């Protein structure tokens, strides 16, 4: 009889080698390293690293935006100002850790004396986290990284950007729309840049009936960094107020149930 962890083998079923022998034997094909079960372990380890890094983050705002916009652009200065104002309001700033608008928001967060977080992504070309990231990790898998953005942020600020930014914007809106995350504010910054998209959402998506009448209200649009912070502050005050009211209602319900039980008994 052979025991191997929880397994028991008897007779002809007893393997020729022990688990340790097989683990320590370096011979044999290495194809299994490229199989999905092995990838699942790597994916798990990315979640563990991400949760481990961010668990103590406290309140945070995620800032999405183009990787391609240069520091000379007025949008860069706007991103920097917004990063700075967000940390002064008591939030950490989380970005994708890359260049462009991500770098601008991280730079502002650093200059504002707050926590500047970058969640980088491995790309086919060499790239490192921008120099204004104080706390960072680089992910292999986009979807693991997205989970981190969404799990650790209480608001989403979307600066001008391309496909990557649009992907992140619509992921955040979809999760809010479907009630998968708390109704956190999604704020587009740049009326000239985003105005056409917002009009299309109202004129086409709404009028064709593919979104609900309230859905356009999930998105705020502004050019003003102070308004960005005001929207976040107001939304969070409402969420906290709502939670407190819900908690009070559940305390009241509990007290009523206890009273009814006492009256009945
Ligand atoms: C294209 C260039 C660099 C790409 N590097 C990126 N690093 C980190 N995160 C990125 C990068 N590219 C896209 N992202 C993510 O998508 C958003 C920006 O995408 P867009 O298509 O540029 O709008 C951004 O929020 C990131 O999370 C050139 O140097």
UniProtKB/TrEMBL annotation:
Protein family: Belongs to the LOG family.
Name recorded for this polypeptide: Cytokinin riboside 5'-monophosphate phosphoribohydrolase
UniProt keywords, alphabetically: Cytokinin biosynthesis, Hydrolase
Catalytic activity: 9-ribosyl-trans-zeatin 5'-phosphate + H2O = trans-zeatin + D-ribose 5-phosphate; N(6)-(dimethylallyl)adenosine 5'-phosphate + H2O = N(6)-dimethylallyladenine + D-ribose 5-phosphate
Top EC class, one word: hydrolase
GO CC terms in record: cytosol
Presence of the UniProt keyword Hydrolase in the record: yes
């Amino acid at each position: 009889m052979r025991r191997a962890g929880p397994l028991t083998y008897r007779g002809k079923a007893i393997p020729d080698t022990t688990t340790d022998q097989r683990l320590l034997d370096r011979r044999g094909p290495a194809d299994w390293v490229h199989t999905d079960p092995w990838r699942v372990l790597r994916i798990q380890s990315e979640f563990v690293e991400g949760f481990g890094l961010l668990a103590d983050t406290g309140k945070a705002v995620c800032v999405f935006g183009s990787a391609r916009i240069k520091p000379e652009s007025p949008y860069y200065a706007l991103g920097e100002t917004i990063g700075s104002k967000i940390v002064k309001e008591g939030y950490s700033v989380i970005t994708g850790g890359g260049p462009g608008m991500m770098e601008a928001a991280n730079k502002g967060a650093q200059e504002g004396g707050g926590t500047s977080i970058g969640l980088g992504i491995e790309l086919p070309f060499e790239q490192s986290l921008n120099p204004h990231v104080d706390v960072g990790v680089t992910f292999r898998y986009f979807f693991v990284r997205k989970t981190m953005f969404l799990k650790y942020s209480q608001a989403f600020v979307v600066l001008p950007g391309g496909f990557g930014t649009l992907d992140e914007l619509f992921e955040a809106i979809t999760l809010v729309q479907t009630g998968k995350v708390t109704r956190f504010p999604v704020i587009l910054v740049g009326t000239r840049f985003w105005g056409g998209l917002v009009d299309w959402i109202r004129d086409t998506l709404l009028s064709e009936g593919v979104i609900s009448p309230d859905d356009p209200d999930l998105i705020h649009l502004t050019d003003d960094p102070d308004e960005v912070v005001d929207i976040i502050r107001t939304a969070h005050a409402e969420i906290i107020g709502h939670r407190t009211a819900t908690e009070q209602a559940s305390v009241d319900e509990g007290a009523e149930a206890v009273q009814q039980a006492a009256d009945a008994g």
